[in-house]
Amino acid sequence: MEKVNRSRMEMDTLLKTQDKNYEQMRSRDVQSQIKLYNTDWKEKEITGSNAFREKGNRSMQILAGIAASLSAAVLAANTVWNSPALPHLKSNHSNFFVTDSQGGWIISIYHFADIIGALLNIFFIDRIGRKLSLLLSGIPAVISWILIIYAENYLYIFIAKFISGIGQGVTYNALVIYLAEIAEKDIRGTLVSIMRTIQCLFYFGLAAVGTFFSYEILNLSALSVPVLFLIVFSFMPESPYFLLLQGRDEDAMKSLMKLRGMSDSKTLTVDLGEMKLDIEDKQKHKNNSLKDLILKSYNRKCLAIVMCLKLTQVMAGHSAILNNTQEIFSLSGSSISPKISVLILAGIRLISTFGASGIMDRISKRITFLVCGILAALFLTTVGLFFFLKFYVKADVSSITWLPLAALVLFEIVYYVGIAVIPYILQGELFSMNVKGTAVAFSMIIGSTFSFISNTGYNFISRNAGVFVAFWFYATVSFIGSVLTFWITPESNGKTLEEIHAMQNPEMKMKLELERKSRSVFS
């Protein structure tokens, strides 16, 4: 009895520091939870029920994650198209001709439009939901592929890429948040890794189509990807966090039960109660997300972490390499066809993502990112050294023309094991509900801006200073970025979203501790 009184006094002290409305709301929640726990405990003693131990299963979380990740496959279709399509459009076999300059802008405008999509997503991700936001992102993709299929000049392609770029900005924002919110703590990293696996699977398939089939078949195959996504994902559940945000507690419980594979809502009462802590914080700071993101020190730290992550991920040059793969291998003079080299790299990416799925929730994300970043810098330096010897020193490199392919294969492995995946995981984990939509959108804008600079910069640097300078620049960014990220990033493995937020936010930490202490008193 004395323990109960002491816990209640601590809770009262905290509640008095809150505004009147929040105090009344929290009081009602605590009282109803006390009543529920007393009732449940009595039922357990009388009936000996095992409902509290219901384990459920995670198959629905995996299925929903795969279905949602088909939106990333839509983006893969846009990216893989560049490598086989642009050489075709620059050749005599095309119905219309595209210059090198126009081809460069076709790539760059996609990443510029990505910024616009990320900005638009801020206004509706918390209004229409994560699921509907993802579904809407598939529509620009369908429109863009229809424009490409019926293109009569390069302006059709230009407009199509701009439209699909807007869709990408919406997609990544909603997808990262959706995957983080539907997954349990033990599989959250794995689920986000699946996103990359699905993306690379479709990239490999479409790269094969681009290698062995015509330009027209490639376009039709790419169109089928967003259509497949729109059909499959429409049957998946909404994020329980969003439903709580809308005050639809009953629907949130149903969604959570479906995702966890459980039939007894009592088993998930505790989980739903902790989720509400984040929602209460969001409602308390309603319409102040941008202000809180900038003014709160812990939010600024999270932004700094994300900036380092995105800087390393994007400015390591992967996107530029992806969009110019055939050209890079043509410059190397390798006996292996550039198209086959592209296919080899696509296969390596796919295999690497399986490795990432296996280790992401078992090994520290900080350490993984650091090791992968340093190794990526080493392999990029090697590629740069080859081109330096060939074009600057004018040395005979005929005996090592295999080196760029080998180094880029190793680069792809370490990139997709860590650098490609971890930033998306942490974007969905670090920010609390009241700033998450704005913060993730801001993160995507940073990434899109860096990507635009990286792709545009590759062509400029390669023409004016040499391709080896571009690779050495990417290597430098990869090394410095990974070390800096390791230094400032907290460890999040094995923690719930609420526990991660409590690491940064003292107020959230106190609320979570009192929530759990109040439960322990009556259990």
C-alpha Rg (nearest Å): 25 Å
| Helical amount | over 70%
Point out poorly predicted stretches: 14-23, 29-53
CATH A-level architecture? Up-down Bundle
Average predicted local confidence, pLDDT: 80
CATH topology: Growth Hormone, Chain: A
Please give the largest β-sheet: none
The first-level CATH class is given as Mainly Alpha
**SS field, number of helical segments:** 23
List the secondary-structure elements in sequence, H or E: HHHHHHHHHHHHHHHHHHHHHHH
Count of individual beta strands: 0
**In the CATH hierarchy, what is the superfamily?**
MFS general substrate transporter like domains
Report the sheet-strand fraction: under 5%
Overall SS class: mainly alpha
Q: What oligomeric assembly is this protein in?
A: single chain
Number of domains: 1
> What form results from the Cα inertia axes?
globular
The span between the termini is 13 Å
Describe this structure in words.
- With 523 residues, the protein is mainly α.
- It has one domain: Growth Hormone, Chain: A, CATH 1.20.1250.20.
- It has 23 helices and no strands.
- It has helices at residues 2-15, 20-47, 59-89, 100-124, 130-149, 154-182, 188-212, 215-233, 240-245, 249-260, 269-284, 289-295, 297-315, 318-323, 325-332, 338-359, 365-392, 403-419, 422-430, 433-464, 467-488, 497-504, 506-521.
- The longest helix is centred in the last third of the chain and has 32 residues, at 433-464.
- It is globular and about 75 Å long.
